[in-house]
Amino acid sequence: MNSNHLLLEEPIRMASILEPSKPSFFPAMTKIVGTLGPKSRSVEIISDCLKAGMSVARFDFSWGDIEFHQETLENLKTAVKSIRKLCAIMLDTGGPELQVVNKTEHPISLEADTKVILTPDQDKPATSNLLPINYHGLSKAVKKGDTIFIGQYLFTGNETTSVWLEVDEVCSEDVVCLIKNSATLSGTLYTLHVSQIRIDMPTLTDKDKEVISIWGVQNNIDILSLSYTRHAEDIRHARSFLSKLGELNQTQIFAKIENIEGLTHFDEILQEADGIIFSRGNLGIDLPPEKVFLFQKAAVYKCNMMGKPAVVTRVVDSMTDNLRPTRAEATDVANAVLDGSDAILLGAETLRGLYPVETVSTVGKICAEAEKVFNQDLYFKKTVKNVGEPMSHLESIASSAVRAAIKVKASAIICFTSSGRACRLIAKYRPTMPVISVVIPRLKTNQLRWTFSGAFEARQSLIVRGLFPMLADPRHPAESKSGSNESVLKVALDHGKASGVIKPHDRVVVCQKLGDASVVKILELED
């Protein structure tokens, strides 16, 4: 990893720090993924989150049933129609997640320097001395001295509901552990993480397959977040499964990297996945704290060079219970943007946090400020160098469009696309201005009925930094020999003007196909 690819634009005027931020229709180029749950599932809250900058709604099936999530999704659909703003749907699988089973739901107090037994016998009640778990193979996976972490579902890291255990001995299927810190397990669901140990369970579990087959198919999910991705084969298996589920063959698969195994096979996973989610909560348990940032920077850089979205989690934990983030958290969000992240994923902050809307708004504002000092010139040169020569035709067009837009100080880039590939390549070069992606629907048939494609492609770009999609009228093709895209272009320009991105006398770069030729043109707008 090169050490200088994250330099700020210099010089930064100190006086500019005191200037108030200007409101914008697009709060930030960096996207925000919000996890919807008990504190963020009403139409009103979801609408406010969308207005504040959320562009992807995450449904985490580690908890909650299909009926609960369906009700939340119906509220999301109502909110989307109400404020007329696209939102992508992400289904996050439970995966091979180990959990403590507490059927009584009473708080469990654990005292430091005492011992507790982890047992696969789920019929036994949870007590201060005995914790039933949902996995029979733990005794075969661990040895004396191994570290085990137990915390509240979507723990934030600053709670007293987390406990560290050290394996003392293994007795048949039971694991006897020494408690390292006093804690009270007071939530309804506790996850269990064994540091740097392989858990012999399938990445896509039977429960995950059932959820995808029912809820995923019913709602045409845009993105599947594959929890605990450990090998490239995990992605291939999930893609094969989705390919048999009708429209879900278009669903993108994001690999969620959560442990050492996923980190070790990262390069192969990146080749297969459509994007990467860095689950820093679990990674922070598997990795020494001083190593987490190194993996983040190196991995995000690799994603950037391949033009695949990089999503960072666990940024403003304290906003779960507080109205403002800590100084370190605010800086962490900014550094994620400067590293090149496409999106910030909010978990506990929006799912069970007290201030979901304020969290989305605050993160968006921090991202917008960081983007102002992102060194695009250096990034562009490194990306071009990484691609090498000869460039592919489409890569050449994309990089040329970005270079032209920056040279003429264009206020926006408008890209016509059917598959979404062209606009993603443009976004790969991180232009400093928004890319309005005009998705031209394509007519297709299954020999029984005609349908238009394009909605998937539009929504899936909502997780890509700098891309802002709009669906075009299907009567206007993406390719035209006579330039009939002009009317679609007018609609795109009007959309840009209405959103405040494009103003009179601005310059706009347009990227489109005319017949067999790909064209980049510069428009200078009149009054």
Describe this structure in words.
The protein has 527 residues and is α/β, with parallel strands linked by helices. The protein has three domains: 28-95 and 204-372, TIM Barrel (Alpha-Beta Barrel), CATH 3.20.20.60; 98-194, PK beta-barrel domain-like (M1 Pyruvate Kinase, Domain 3, Beta Barrel), CATH 2.40.33; 376-525, Pyruvate kinase, C-terminal domain (Pyruvate Kinase, Chain: A, domain 1), CATH 3.40.1380.20. It is built from 17 helices and 24 strands. It has an eight-stranded parallel β-barrel, surrounded by seven helices. Strands 4-12-8-9-10-6-7 form a seven-stranded mixed β-sheet. A hairpin with a 2-residue loop joins strand 9 (163-171) and strand 10 (174-179). The chain is globular. The protein starts with 30 loop residues before the first strand and ends with a strand. 44% of the residues are buried.
Number of domains: 3
Low-confidence stretches: 1-6
CATH architecture of the largest domain: Alpha-Beta Barrel
Query: With helices defined by DSSP (H or I, 4 residues minimum), what is the helix count?
Result: 17
Task: Assign the CATH topology of the largest domain.
Answer: TIM Barrel
Which class of secondary structure composition applies to the elements? alpha/beta
- Major beta sheet, strand line-up: 1-2-3-13-14-15-16-17
Largest sheet: 8 strands, parallel, barrel
Helix content: 25-40%
How many β strands by DSSP?
Answer: 24
CATH class of the largest domain: Alpha Beta
Residue share in β-strands: 15-25%
What is the approximate shape?
Answer: globular
